[in-house]
Amino acid sequence: MNVQSVRKHPAGSDSDSGRKVRKYRSGARAREHRGPLRGFEHYIPVGDDPHAVAIGSGVNTRAGCRRIAEYAFQYAVNNGRKKVTVVHKANILKALTGLFLETAREVGKRYEGRVEVDERIVDACAMQLVLDPWQFDVILTTNLFGDILG
Hints:
Elements: E1 2-5, E2 19-22, E3 38-46, E4 49-59, H1 62-78, E5 83-88, H2 96-109, E6 116-121, H3 122-131, E7 138-140, H4 143-149
Parallel strand pairs: 2-7, 5-6, 5-7
Antiparallel strand pairs: 1-2, 3-4
Helix pairs in contact: 1-2
């Protein structure tokens, strides 16, 4: 898991900073990745252009989504955080990030009364991070969206 600060305390310390939790992948392990998100890409040649068409797809597993969600909620409890914001794109990628969102909701129910669950579409979250980062405590997202928000 990768935990990153998403805001700094005005005094300069990050003791009051929000946290972003996402599955971390590094170079050599990317091909063996067993976490919640894996991408597949390839090109289709047309005429003399070998890269005329690009196709990409991804795979989320319920087990991987559950693992990262449980980590994020437990992190919130262990560190006195009050809210986990689940960042997704389930409005468009209904199956791919819908599974991530559905699983995070299921895990979040087990923490009801201890940690508030919030949901944001990644586009809106990016804007809100710029306008008011203090509204976020822990952000739970996939590797792709974590890279975008980071």
